[in-house]
Amino acid sequence: MPFPTFVIVGAQKSGTTTLHDLLGQLPDAWMSEPKELHFFDKHLNRGLEWYAGQFQPGPEHVAWGESTPFYLYKDRARDAMVDALPSARFVAILREPVSRAYSHYWFARSKGKESLSTFAEAVAAEPERLSNSKDGQPAAYSYLDRGRYLRQLVALTERVGRERLLVHLMDDLSADPRGVLATTCTFVGLDPGGVAEVEVLSKNTFAERTVNSADGQSKRRLRRRNDAGLQDGYPPIDAGLAADLRAAFHEENLALSRWLGRDLSSWLPVEP
Question: What backbone phi and psi angles, to 5 degrees, belong to 92?
Answer without folding.
Answer: -125, 145
